[in-house]
Design brief:
Blueprint (H helix, E strand, L loop, with lengths): L7 H13 L1 E2 L12 E8 L2 E7 L18 E7 L5 E9 L17 E5 L2 E9 L9 E8 L7 E2 L10 E7 L5 E7 L1 E7 L11 E2 L13 E5 L2 E9 L4 E8 L7 E7 L12 E5 L2 E8 L11 E7 L20 E2 L11 E2 L4 E5 L9 E5 L5 E8 L7 E8 L3 E7 L6 E7 L2 E10 L7 E8 L5 E8 L1
Parallel strand pairs: 21-25
Antiparallel strand pairs: 1-5, 2-3, 3-4, 4-5, 6-7, 7-8, 8-9, 10-11, 11-12, 12-13, 14-15, 15-16, 16-17, 18-19, 19-20, 22-25, 23-24, 24-31, 25-30, 26-29, 26-31, 27-28, 27-30
The structure holds beta-L-arabinofuranose (FUB).
Length: 450
């Protein structure tokens, strides 16, 4: 009889490893590393996220104060709340045609065809390969999270960045990419060779850089969505057509220029469980350097005529948050006009996340969509620090809504948890309100129901 090799210790290791890789919900979606250029796809009922991986260049490793990317990770989520990092899938040192001193593994895409996952990525070719500069390669896997086997040569005839592959209902695949303008070409069935010469999609706004194309079809309309520098930084626009090769007619703006000043934006759209979502990026974890970006997601809505409503970026993001998880209220849906601020917990270690500070009686913060369908909730923990002590109320749905608990945060500048018994047991989905009852300042990291 074969021995079961997965003993209790192995099992514990696997569980710990899985949770160690878990990224957080809310925006930004991932706070364990910088991520950018998110291509989201729905495969086998889960959302897979293929972003670029920004790192900080150091002398001899990449160009200082510029984009620096050496590999790709893939993440997945069953619910848009819990994200798992499946680890590194392609690295510049493992691609024969890439100049591995270039650190230029820019925005990728992934599509499923005939039982295989095709991962497309741009990078700078080693001298003599496919001409000069950026070109696009392919890596192929049996699963959406790899392992991916890299094709030895890039796609012949492509000079540019930001590949996006769209497969039409008739099975024809198209590849789009950018090089100042946006280009389109047909792909052969093997998905690794061009079936037509690339052509510029010329009907888009003529002035200003356009890049990062993302193409999809909905109700017979082909949407070409792309970042465009109309004024100072990139905003997300879209154009529509009745043919995947165009002509595309500029139709509107999906997202305005970032309020943070992040120069790039790069995006993708998916429909998941009857809701559309926009994935994009900003510089949440690196407010002073916009080449160290973080991916985000917000809900997106179509009008009846197929036009797209503008998406206003939020920090709350999407997905339900279970009541018995640490609820990061600083990823808020709304705050009181006065008395509430949000800042990094530790500006020297920004990946530790953010805190909420109340410094006025009645100041509040609202965190939407908490799932209370957790059995036998008895109390709530509030992770807080208040030099002079503080009383903090936990309520549902509005600042004067059902009072669940009052946490009496003890005096002390150090972070500590305060437990407060629940006066009522909530059920279903609610918005959470945390309200300060004192004028003295109190910092809050998270709340969690037990
Ligand atoms: O991430 C590097 C480049 O910045 C991408 O390829 C562009 O789309 C822009 O986001």
């Amino acid at each position: 009889m074969k021995k079961n090799i997965l003993g209790p210790l192995h099992f514990l290791f696997i569980v710990v490893a899985l949770f160690a890789n878990n990224a957080k919900a809310q925006n930004p979606l991932i706070t364990t590393q910088y991520t950018a250029d998110p291509t989201a796809k729905v495969f086998d009922g889960k959302v897979y996220l293929y972003p670029s991986h920004d790192i900080l260049a150091t002398p001899g490793h990449g160009r200082l104060a510029w984009f620096c990317m050496e590999d790709y990770h893939v993440f997945s989520s069953p619910n848009l709340t819990d994200w798992t990092d499946h680890g590194m899938i392609v690295s510049q040192t493992k691609v024969p045609w890439v100049d591995s001193t270039s650190y230029s593994m820019w925005a990728p895409d992934c599509v499923f065809r005939n039982g295989k996952y095709y991962f497309y990525f741009p990078s700078t070719a080693a001298s003599g390969v496919n001409g000069k500069g950026f070109t696009v390669g392919v890596a192929i896997a049996d699963k959406p999270y790899g392992p991916f086997k890299v094709e030895p040569q890039p796609i012949k005839g492509i000079h540019g960045i930001d590949p996006c592959v769209f497969i039409d209902k008739d099975g024809q695949a198209y590849i789009y990419y950018a090089q100042g303008n946006i280009y389109a070409a047909k792909l052969k069935d093997n998905m690794t060779e061009l079936a037509s010469d690339p052509k510029i999609l010329g009907d888009l706004p003529a002035k200003g850089l356009k890049e990062g194309p993302f193409v999809f079809e909905r109700n017979g309309i082909y949407y070409l969505t792309y970042p465009h520098v109309d004024k100072v930084t990139e905003r997300l626009e879209y154009a529509i057509s009745n043919n995947p090769m165009g002509p595309f007619k500029f139709t509107g703006v999906i997202m305005d220029e970032s309020a943070s000043g992040c120069w790039t934006n790069h995006h993708s759209l998916i429909e998941f469980k009857n809701q559309w979502y926009l994935f994009y990026h900003d510089r949440d974890l690196s407010p002073k350097f916009d080449k160290a970006r973080s991916v985000r997601s917000d809900s997106l809505f179509f009008n009846a005529d197929g036009t797209i409503q503008k998406v206003i970026p939020t920090v709350r993001g999407v997905g339900l948050t279970r009541a018995n998880k640490q609820i990061q209220i600083d990823r808020y849906s709304a705050i009181s006009k006065e008395g509430t601020t949000v800042d990094f917990i530790d500006t020297a270690h920004r990946m530790k996340g953010w805190k909420t500070t109340f410094n006025q009686k009645g100041a509040w913060i609202r965190y939407n969509a908490v799932d209370f369908s957790v059995k036998k909730l008895k109390d709530v923990d509030v992770m807080a620090a208040a030099a002079q002590g503080a009383n903090v109320e936990v309520r549902l749905d509005k600042p004067t809504g059902m009072l669940l608990a009052t946490a009496k945060v003890g005096k002390g500048a150090n972070w500590h948890t305060t437990k407060a018994a629940l006066l009522k047991t909530p059920v279903g989905k609610h918005d959470l309100f945390i309200i300060s009852k004192d004028a003295a300042p109190v910092d809050i990291d998270w709340v969690k129901f037990n």
